[in-house]
Structure formats: C-alpha cells, structure tokens
Amino acid sequence: MAKTTGNSKVKKKPNADNLIAIYMDYVLEQEKTPKSVYKFAKDNDMTEQDFYKHFGSFEGLRKAIWEKFFENSIEVMEKSKEYASFTNREKLLTFYYTFFEVLTANRSYVLYTLTEHEQPLKNLDQLKTLRKRIKNYAKTLIEERNKEKSLKLFQQSEMIFSEGVWIQFLFLLKFWMDDNSAAFESTDVAIEKSVNTVFDVFDNTPLERIVDFGKFLWKERMA
C-alpha cells in the first residue's frame, strides 16, 4: 500500500488511495485518530468535498483500509501462476501467509487501530467489511471442495465453513498481535497448524462443533 512520508501535502485532487495513505500517516505520527474531517482536509490542502467524494466518514475510511489489505493480498496471490492449481488447503494457507505479510508491512498502524479502545469489540467494528470479503473467499473454497464430493451427505455447509474461517482469522490476528518471535515465525507456524488441522477435522467432524471450538479459542485468546 502506498504511503506518504513526512508532512507531504496533496497537490492534486486526492483519490481514495491518497486519502488512505495520508490518514494512516496521520494516525502514526499523531498517535491519535483525527477528530474532524474539516481539520483533516484543511491540513492536507483539500476540501471536505474532496474527502466525502470517496468516504462518508472516518469510519468508512478505516473499513476501506482493511478492504485494501484484502485486495492487495488477493492481487499478489493471483499473480502467481501456480495459485490456480493449488488445492483449497494450499489456497487458504497462501491467503493467510500473504495477508499477514501485508499486515506486517503496516504493523504499527494495525496494532494502534486494534487497541485504540478499551473495549475489544469496538476496535473490531472496522473489520465488518473485511469479514464479508473473507467469508465470501472462504465460500468459494468450500464450493470447490463440495464439487469434488459426489454425495451431498459428505458436503459441508458453505455458511458454517465461511464463519469458521472468519473465527480462525480472528484467532490468528490476535496471535499475530501478541507474537514477539523474530520475523513473526510463530505466527507462520500457527497458520500452518491451524489450517491443516481445520481441513483434516472438516472431513470427520460436524462443522458446528468446529465453529464452537473456534469461538472458545478466540475468547481464550482475548482474555
């Protein structure tokens, strides 16, 4: 993701990427989120209309940042010629590895914005749009997996699978936030083990039980 440096000003009409970059820099440099669109726009040589052309509020911009993280990850993955031939397990592994590389490149911003408020759920509100994107991605994986199974008895629920992947992502996100290992190697191990375990268990365990277990892990991690 493009970033601005120092106190650079927008000379031309800003696009969405410009606004995202400037906003992220503001948060990191000021160690706080801007309070007013008017002041934010004025400090960056633009008008409020320039801002509202792309985002209806700072909340909308924050959600767009996570969407951009997701889109950048998918773009990187799909550039690989091998990706199309990967198994669903390999695709999910690749997604997590790539997504957390993107997060690591923006770690200071991510850590700040996910710990800004004392209430964890309030910090997670910005992930609502990302949740839809990740769940839709997960649904494409289970759709492909179900096509390989001739009997509906052995097919898995797309809705429950996608919810399970989302809960798994939240667990990995919290793990990564707390990871102090060099190059975040522990997170890579957690990704591999969790994805392999989930795919192994999916073939032998009702998905509802997996989702319940995932919720338990998430609550334990947040404690």
From TrEMBL:
Top-rank lineage group of the source organism: Bacteria
Domain Tetracyclin repressor-like C-terminal residues, every copy: 91-217
Name recorded for this polypeptide: TetR/AcrR family transcriptional regulator
Protein source organism: Christiangramia crocea
Classification of source organism: Bacteria, Pseudomonadati, Bacteroidota, Flavobacteriia, Flavobacteriales
